[in-house]
Automatic annotation (TrEMBL), chains A, B:
Residues 367-505 form the Thiamine pyrophosphate enzyme TPP-binding domain. It comes from Micromonospora violae. Belongs to the TPP enzyme family. Residues 2-98 form the Thiamine pyrophosphate enzyme N-terminal TPP-binding domain. It comes from the Bacteria. The lineage of its organism: Bacteria, Bacillati, Actinomycetota, Actinomycetes, Micromonosporales. This is Acetolactate synthase-1/2/3 large subunit. Keywords: Thiamine pyrophosphate. The keyword Iron-sulfur does not apply. GO terms for molecular function: acetolactate synthase activity; flavin adenine dinucleotide binding; magnesium ion binding; thiamine pyrophosphate binding.
């Protein structure tokens, strides 16, 4: 624990058990190490993700053997896709005990391996510090990863631990001048070009540079679908996001001869569909990586902009905010309320799925804010991301915009929000359905329709309806129901103004 | 889907997504296949476990790619340890799509492998029926396992599927006469012997045979700690359970020269502790397996009893029920209320952890009932087990006794209980703590005490307190708070008498 603290870890999101007892005890021997209890491992892991993204520092999770780790894996998958630096600490039985296959025994390393990050397991107390240091180094090496250290209980309880020496963090690798020159030539060619920015390139420096490049060369600038931390709002350029649906993305990229990526991956279909390509780079177009994951995409864009557009300035959003809407909430009006009232320095958690299409436009004129999205496609990251973001930045208002289906995977995040009295305004977008799945039914023309006896109910959240107000109150969070724009506006303003967490159940129509 | 239905699968506990769309659609083409929606995969998998145990039939789950499977893994671990036959269906991208590493892509087979069961992945539509049949056969082969079939979306949506032929179920392997004769000799030796029964041997036939053996030979009969389906109550013999704490188990087995297991594994410590052995067979004692997992332990016990105790009858509990207690609930009195009021043909789900020590004695005189325990040691199985048991036996009252910490992992099981209007009386044992972890603090004498700034809060559920009544109401379940035995009795009786689910928050003291 001291090794991790020396290396910059300040918070451990934990759901510990018997095998972690001595590590829990050790936390109290280390100054400045704060344990945050979660009631479900998926909350701990999602919170670590949110913390790492906002703090810009490694987060730690502490989970209980293979089964506890398994509960937390899904949001670690989301963390992995967000390139968040997370040290995943998993307690295990001693090796001599595992041979007896007691009930909680399992192959923990196999679960760690599923995350494609570093997996270590010290065999004794003497090795724990070294392995902790190596795990932390792996976690923070650009672009960031989930690195797992499996700690046998006897390595915890025996004497002889040696504090490890965390390696100094490495900066992201610079892009070579050759690559920048080659991409500049592509952009000068005059051929239709799309520039897709993502990862570290969707913050101020990268956004402004991309805007200048687009203005000077005519390149179509697009944002990746999901960003781990997007800077957004007034005084920043905004770009269209790639679509979730591949037929839309195909339209977005139609006619281009070159696709340049900076901090983003080549565009691929989120899901496969019959007769739809997986790779969405148009046929015949060339693909060029300005900056791969782990490279300094923002700096590369700035260099490219200075080369191509020395005299062009970025096209920024002027602070036009939506007019306050009225009447029953619509898919558009709820976003206008948020856009009109978003406070200074907010952090938006966007797990709106099918209900948030109008959000980027509605918030483009709001005061500058960060937007954290769930990057791995696995639902249930929103409420935990809010926990982590609020722990990392207690002085900033966190606005968690979470679709009703998503909120159900990790609902107990609300308890941790209440316990830690985090400044989070949770807005549950309540359309009583897995709206995205209803949309997918329409997409699959060869599928049966939604009137079928099994299929239709499996996308339905209306029978019975879920009362998110009562659920929030059950966890100690003040909550209210909004069905009109006026109600949402009043409740949102109040929630932002009062300290601690709040929840608003915003009833909206489903996509059709 | 037709292959599975032909092989006896009737219910699919599902949280499906885009990659499972065509399988969801296919369910509607197959008569008698019922989809049950859960809002979190851990509920689906725990429900499948409960269903399989009570129905004595294979259950199926349908989950969404690796991240959905990951959310469900923990309760599949519990299922694996319970030897429940579960067909785990996981949708995947087509193979041609996975090479593009879109956000939800992962190594699903690695997760399936973690469960140590069969893992198959048909490559095309033509192979799905065969793989479904093989997966089902693996799931139901005694003793039962979690068998996974990963179905690429194009294997679902392409034409050319061929219905597979499910193999006929195999009976458990009989124990040979040689083994029975050898164990009979041990029992006739007059040396102190413990007979540990578990798995299929803790139902009527095995319990009665074990009782006769104990009475005739003086062997000390003990039950394994966690049983997948224990028959209990009036007119059945009851035996002490092995302890969770190894020092207690060591006392239970002190002095024996032979340990005979029947359907149970050799006793091992649940957790390791400094200076405590992992294997709890006393030093110098011999260990003998009458029946290994997958063998017909109950039949072997009956044969053994007929050999050793032809004229001895089983020592059954007479229907003595507890006197109704009064006053504030205690760790004993809550169990007496349940024991006094348990209806005919009940199914008890026992996830009471540190709060249920008095339960077996209090229910020994109640009408005969089944008790399902969580066998893998991973918390959060209770509420989902109740869902599955109630779906399997809609005409039987299900009583879910769940510790407050456990309820938080899979809380949304309550919504599925409400949606399906299942006859479940949920009693949340609310001691505002991870009581078992407080107990473990005391066990580790080398650990720091509970006054520490991080350690103590990490076992505490009182700040803020959780209002389970509001939570249940939020999911559409009538709920009430009981702080006295009188209140619990009145509310329990009413909940049992009314159809559909109910929840009682029973406030009890924590173990100290």
């Amino acid at each position: 624990m001291r090794t991790l603290a020396d290396g910059g870890v300040e918070v451990v999101f934990a759901n510990a058990g018997t095998t972690e007892m001595h590590m829990v005890g050790a936390m109290d021997a280390v100054p400045n190490l704060r344990g945050v209890l979660t009631l479900f491992e998926g909350v701990a892991t999602g919170a670590a993700d949110g913390y790492a993204r906002i703090a810009g520092k490694p987060a730690a999770t502490m989970l209980h053997l293979g089964p506890g780790f398994a509960y937390g894996l899904t949001n670690l998958h989301n963390s992995r896709r967000a390139n968040s630096p997370v040290v995943s600490i998993v307690g295990d039985h001693p090796t001599y005990h595992n041979v007896y296959d007691s009930p909680l025994t399992s192959d923990i390393a196999a679960l760690g391996g599923w995350l494609r990050g570093s997996v270590r397991r010290p065999e004794n107390a003497a090795g724990t510090g070294t392995d902790a240091a190596a795990t932390l180094a792996a976690a923070v090496e650009p672009p960031g990863q989930v690195a797992t250290v499996i700690v046998p209980a006897d390595a915890s309880w025996n004497d002889g631990g040696v504090v490890g020496t965390p390696a100094a963090g490495k900066p992201p690798q610079p892009v070579t001048q050759d690559v920048i020159a080659r991409i500049a030539d592509v952009l000068r060619s005059g051929e239709p070009t799309a520039l897709i920015i993502g990862g570290p390139a969707v913050r101020e420096a990268g956004l402004c540079a991309a805007s200048r490049i687009g203005a000077a060369t005519g390149a179509r600038v697009l944002q990746e679908l999901y960003s781990n931390r997007l800077e957004h709002g007034a005084d920043l350029p905004t770009f269209p996001r790639l679509s979730f649906f591949p037929d839309q993305t195909i339209k977005q990229l139609a006619g281009v001869k070159h696709v340049i990526t900076a901090g983003a991956k080549e565009p691929v279909a989120f899901f496969a569909y019959p007769d739809v390509p997986s790779c969405l780079v148009p046929e015949g177009a060339q693909s060029h990586a300005l900056a791969e994951t782990g490279q300094d995409a923002a700096a590369a864009l700035v260099q490219l902009a200075d080369l191509l557009a020395p005299d062009t300035s970025a096209d920024v959003d002027t602070p036009q905010r939506p007019t306050m809407p009225s009447g029953p909430l619509t898919l558009k009006s709820w976003t206008e309320v948020v856009g009109a009232l978003l406070p200074e320095r907010a952090i938006i958690i966007d797990e709106t799925v099918s209900s948030g299409t109008a959000l980027p436009a509605a918030t483009a004129g709001a005061p500058r804010h960060d937007v954290l999205m769930q990057c791995g496609g696995a639902m249930g990251d929103g409420l935990p991301l809010a926990v982590g973001a609020a722990v990392a930045a207690p002085d900033r208002p966190v606005v968690a915009l979470v679709a009703d289906g998503c909120a159900m995977y990790t609902l107990t995040a609300l308890w941790t929000q209440a316990r830690e009295q985090l400044n989070i305004t949770n807005v549950i977008l309540n359309n009583h359905a897995y709206g995205i799945l209803r949309a997918e039914w329409g997409y699959f023309t060869r599928s049966p329709g939604p009137g079928d006896p099994n299929a239709n109910p499996l996308f339905d959240l209306a029978h019975p309806t879920i009362d998110y107000v009562k659920l929030a109150q059950g966890f100690g969070i003040p909550a209210s129901l909004a069905t009109t724009a006026e109600e949402l506006a009043e409740q949102f303003s109040r929630a932002i103004a009062e300290p601690g967490p709040h929840l608003i159940q915003a009833v909206i129509p489903t996509v059709t």
